TrEMBL record:
CDD domains named among the record's database cross-references: alpha_hydroxyacid_oxid_FMN (cd02809)
Sequence similarity: Belongs to the FMN-dependent alpha-hydroxy acid dehydrogenase family.
Presence of the UniProt keyword Membrane in the record: no
Protein name: Oxidase FUB9
UniProt keyword annotations, A-Z: Flavoprotein, FMN, Oxidoreductase
Organism name: Thyridium curvatum
Pathway: Mycotoxin biosynthesis
GO molecular function, one term: FMN binding
Length: 388
């Protein structure tokens, strides 16, 4: 439960308002910011209004089954939602990624850890394992490591080896950052990591920085930097290179077209993330929900489809699964919950979304995840897509 000095919160919007009122402006703008005009960020949110949910009645929904697995032979998770990787979480809460890990593992779901975390990947996994045992769950926690193929490939290999040793379950390779999106809030705020924090997965000697660096001779001056993460030389052959150095599953994060989804299948990806980086990369890219169904139809079940982008309600998760996602992920909502009350805030936000999702399933007449599909939805007046 939240401490008595904090207001009671009942929705993800409540968590957002709390974080907006309490986080420092530079931190709030960093977590909530988007590329340029924020067109894609807003579209991610509004795209859920393109679909109504068809209510069905007199169907036995006394035992709605929402449990699933993020890995074929892995732990069951309470419902199809995991927490996406997000950088520098100690800016949101003093215990940062450790509190996030405890919140996720205590709830029973998967945590994605950013390589640019303010806590080492080893410490995060240890906290997750401890919280899972304390909650009475059997087996180790499930964490995945988000990373980039750095220009210095050995830097990536070193991270992978550490993740393997500690028991991470997959590598989430971000593939939509050949260049960084131009995020005006970060530029205007001259964003930088607060001086008391550090990038815990990299030695200081590596020179990994975050923040804004003014470049007078660069058209993209003052762009936020995490040096060497933006690697414009990557190709599909880079996936093969990565698979040669690890047996961990490789999930590709940033797939937005059927063509790229098919290439992911052809090049041996183990899963894809339909994601536009929360609107932080290419502004005017489509919202993730609008491309999900055509990607699912192209993939034809040959690999799992993970999904993120604007999830704020249990009904958003329901719609994403109906359109072809296997599991949805939240990013900003988990950060807002962390800012509100650390690990307890994260667990409470997940419980709220679970309750909303379960109610949505029951009121649509669906007692199991296998019953979800496009037939559960209909187009609203907002869209010209016609019948599903």
């Amino acid at each position: 439960m939240a401490s008595t000095s904090k207001p009671e919160l009942y929705s993800i919007d409540d968590f957002e308002k709390y974080a907006s009122d309490h986080l420092p402006k530079m931190v709030k703008d960093y977590f909530n910011g988007a590329a340029l005009d924020g067109v894609t960020l807003r579209a991610n949110l509004s795209s859920y209004l393109d679909y109504y949910i068809r209510p069905r009645v007199l169907r036995d929904v006394s035992k709605v089954k929402t449990r699933t697995r993020a890995f074929k032979d892995g732990n069951e998770i309470p419902f199809p939602l995991c927490v996406a990787p997000a950088a520098m979480q100690k800016m949101a809460h003093p215990e940062g990624e450790e509190a996030m890990a405890r919140g996720c593992a205590g709830f029973g779901t998967v945590m994605g850890l950013s390589s640019f975390s303010t806590t080492s990947l080893e410490a995060v996994k240890e906290q997750a394992d401890r919280a899972r045992r304390s909650a009475g769950f059997v087996g180790e926690s499930e964490c995945v490591l988000q990373m980039y193929l750095f220009e210095n490939f050995q830097t990536s290999v070193d991270l992978i080896r550490r993740a393997e040793k500690k028991g991470y379950k997959a590598i989430v390779l971000t593939v939509d950052t050949p260049y960084f999106g131009r995020r005006l809030t970060e530029i205007r705020n001259r964003f930088k990591l607060p001086g008391h924090l550090r990038m815990a997965n990299f030695p200081d000697s590596l020179g990994v920085k975050t923040g804004s660096e003014h470049r007078t001779n660069d058209l993209d001056k003052a762009r936020p930097l995490t040096p060497h993460a933006a690697n414009p030389s990557l190709t599909w052959e880079s996936i093969k290179q990565l698979k040669q150095v690890t047996s961990l599953p490789i999930w590709l994060k940033g797939i937005m077209t059927p063509d790229d989804a098919m290439l992911a299948v052809e090049h041996g990806a183990d899963a894809i993330f339909v994601s536009n980086h929360g609107g932080r990369q290419l502004d005017h890219a489509p919202p993730t929900l609008s491309v999900l169904r055509e990607i699912a139809e192209a993939v034809k079940g040959r690999l799992p489809i993970h999904f993120d982008g604007g999830v704020r309600r249990g009904s958003d998760i329901f719609k994403a699964l109906c359109l072809g996602a296997d599991i949805a992920w939240i990013g900003r909502p988990a950060l807002w919950a962390l800012a509100y009350d650390g690990e307890d805030g994260v667990r409470n936000a997940l419980k709220i979304l679970e309750e909303e999702f379960r109610a949505c399933m029951a009121l649509s007449g669906c007692a199991s995840l296998q019953e979800l599909g496009p037939h559960c939805l209909m187009a609203t007046e907002r869209t010209e897509r016609g019948k599903l």
